[in-house]
Amino acid sequence: MEELEPGIRRVTFALPLGIDHVHCYFLRSSTGGWIVVDTGLGTRDVQRRWRETIAELDAPVEAIVVTHMHPDHVGGARDVAELTGAPVAQGRDDHAQCVSAWGGRNGERFAEYWASHGMPEETVSGIAADSDRLVSAVHWVEDPQLLDPGDEVDGWRVEVLRGHADGHIVLLRDGVMMAGDTILAGITPAIGLYPNSRPDPLGDYLESLARIEELAPRVAYAGHRESIHDPSGRAREIRAHHVERLAHAEAALDGERRSAYDVSLSLFGRELSPTLRRFATAEALAHLERLVREGRAERSAGGYLKAGMGAAPGRGQTG
User: What's the half-sphere exposure (Cβ side, CA atoms, 13 Å) at 250?
Assistant: First the structure.
């Protein structure tokens, strides 16, 4: 466990995912206890992972806050709650998405979604198998305290910054942002379009980046990688990255109708595992839908065309 500044500590757990670690945080409460922010993946051996960590604290865990419903952040929420007796708080919109994703999974609909965007059957089968295995590590809580923008958690103000997840929340106090995955150092948060999600996640995310610039925190403690000591500057860098990726996605629409899967091959290459291909296709979809909203692309028979190209005779969807 590492102390980042007085009253803020960080612990890092390994992940068997595309990224190999996740940070969870401990915030000193006004009564002298601790507030946990994010919980990593769920585990079969709660005692080994969390009891040793909590034993390093000098006071009890009083509350648990989940920034968003992705497995590496919400996955251990029930584990930590059962171990400590602390209540769990989660954003209202985020919890609704959590229920949809982890409580009401429809494997057939999940597979149909990716197939409809041009993904080959073998890849669809691979991501379905990976997702089924992951479900067992998502120990979410059915009845958390629901948080709305402007609420406070022991003096930390709640903001909703959408994009990486539809209802992603952050906590802010005294120039410090507990950022989850809204902003990361060295890599860019994945922005993807998924079943049952808001229709324009990249548009949402660009608004969130503008909000980070407006808030101008002095530091952002993120879910992965290093702490960010110029969040506003990093927000500008990430915006520039997405402007460039939009241009690349538009260029991939080279006159033929392209599926989101096809465009993901252009943006991210061909050598990806099924799970990473899912992320790549979801990200391609988010960028294609933003292009549609900007008038730079149009939907066409399950795929996309550059705006104004129309569907020429004999052109069919690739992939």
Answer: 16
CATH 3.60.15.10 is held by the domain 2-104+134-251: yes
- Judged by phi (left if over 0) then psi (alpha if -120 to 50, else beta), residue 32 lies in left
Do 68 and 165 meet the contact criterion of CB atoms below 8 Å apart? yes
Query: % helix / strand / coil in the chain, to the nearest 5?
Result: 40, 20, 40
Q: In which band, very low, low, confident or very high, does the pLDDT at 241 lie, cut at 50, 70 and 90? A: very high
pTM: 0.93
Domain boundaries, the chain: 2-104+134-251
Q: Which residues are registered as beta bridge partners of 65?
A: 37, 89
Instruction: Judge whether residue 315 has pLDDT over 50.
Output: no
For residue 154, count CB atoms less than 10 angstroms from its CB and return exposed for 0-12, middle for 13-18, buried for 19 or more.
Answer: middle
Determine the pLDDT at residue 253: 96
- Give the separation between CA 205 and CA 161, rounded to whole angstroms: 7
- Residues 212 and 232: beta-carbon distance below 8 Å: yes
CB atoms under 10 Å from CB of 239, counted, come to 16
* Segments in 136-229 forming alpha helices (H): 201-215
Q: Kind and range of the H or E element at 25?
A: strand 21-28
State how far the Cα of 150 lies from the Cα of 260, in Å rounded to an integer. Answer: 37
User: Which backbone phi and psi does 84 adopt, to 5 degrees?
Assistant: -105, -20
217 sits in the region (left: phi over 0; alpha: psi -120 to 50; else beta) called beta
Cβ atoms of 158 and 151 closer than 8 Å: yes
DSSP per position, 265-280 = HHHH-S---HHHHHHH
